[in-house]
């Protein structure tokens, strides 16, 4: 209950400035937190998420709590059922603290367009928060909740994580159940259905592994064990550094420093081409491309490194009217090929805003992606302190 109280106090203080949430479920969260406290006292502990406040991107249905996708037409929409992943979080004992703000219908990378008002970057409100999972990254970065459940279709979770200095992760396509995103509404185009993944935002990689352990269904899986347990397992990663990803000078400087930190861990590193995607052809070959991507693009390497964003975070005044003002060119290939990918903080630009390092792996190799990200975070000393005290 103390953890929830602390988060609600931060929400009360910071929400007027940052607009990270659309709905704050304080009453139901308090009721669930008291129930969790009672269960734990009786020895019925459900795991690391028991009693922990989690935010949910307002794409995922939540029973009795509005799910709007920041869209005017859905502002009074209240689902009768939870999305599958929300159910899994509740089963793990997590407390749903509220629904996070987002770029309307997930159709932008800035977080400026929402019928509930724009989301503001907690490091500096003159700059965008990224999107479309803008409110989630802001809520986690500012300590309003412990983690969030998100979506990622072209980088929608990783981009705002890079802008706000937190960890944004998506698994292999199909790893986590995305059923229950605006259930019963007109589905988006087939392209989006193929590209959309469930995502997780946290302050550190260890927390990401905890949430992922709760979300993954291990029945008939591909030998998936505990992601938390795998973080400290010995591994010999062969690493490729993308030689074809665009990055401006400040981004490149931080990225090169991150690569040197990883090199110091003793892993072999070589130059490699990222399978950056030309979407002009659509998704006609997507199933074949996903089957062959490991053989074509991961020959001699296990993991690929590149900057999460090609540029520093844009100013709000520069991004207004351009929903894709923050380019997804370095992230969207992982959606097309269905690859596991994570963005972790790797430094600050000259304005004091965060930058992200992206680590991408072979299909179904989340362990390696998270393992290297975890080792990098430990070696780099990047702190997990929210920007606002």
Explain the layout of strands and helices.
Elements: H1 2-18, E1 21-24, H2 26-41, E2 53-57, H3 84-91, E3 95-100, H4 134-141, E4 147-152, H5 158-164, E5 167-170, H6 190-195, E6 197-202, H7 205-215, H8 227-230, E7 239-242, H9 249-263, E8 269-272, H10 286-297, E9 303-307, H11 316-319, H12 332-336, E10 341-348, E11 354-361, H13 366-380
Parallel strand pairs: 2-3, 2-4, 7-8, 7-9
Antiparallel strand pairs: 1-3, 4-6, 5-6, 5-10, 9-11, 10-11
Helix pairs in contact: 4-5, 7-13
Descriptive overview:
The protein has helices at residues 2-18, 26-41, 84-91, 134-141, 158-164, 190-195, 205-215, 227-230, 249-263, 286-297, 316-319, 332-336, 366-380, and strands at residues 21-24, 53-57, 95-100, 147-152, 167-170, 197-202, 239-242, 269-272, 303-307, 341-348, 354-361. It has 13 helices and 11 strands. With 389 residues, the chain is α/β, with parallel strands linked by helices. Helix content is 33%, strand content 15%. The radius of gyration is 19 Å and the shape is globular. It has a single domain (2-219, 232-380), classed as Amidase signature (AS) enzymes (Alpha-Beta Complex).
Oligomeric category: single chain
**Through-space gap between termini:** 21 Å
Per CATH, the class reads Alpha Beta
Secondary structure tally, helices: 13
Estimated helix fraction: 25-40%
Rg, alpha carbons: 19 Å
Main sheet, how many strands, which sense, barrel?
A: 11 strands, mixed
The structure class reads: alpha/beta
The CATH architecture designation is Alpha-Beta Complex
- Give helix and strand order, one letter per element, not per position: HEHEHEHEHEHEHHEHEHEHHEEH
Indicate the CATH topology: Amidase signature (AS) enzymes
Instruction: Assign the CATH superfamily.
Output: Amidase signature (AS) domain
Q: Approximately what portion of the residues adopt beta-strand conformation?
A: 15-25%
Total strands: the figure is 11
Compute the average pLDDT: 95
Low-confidence stretches: none
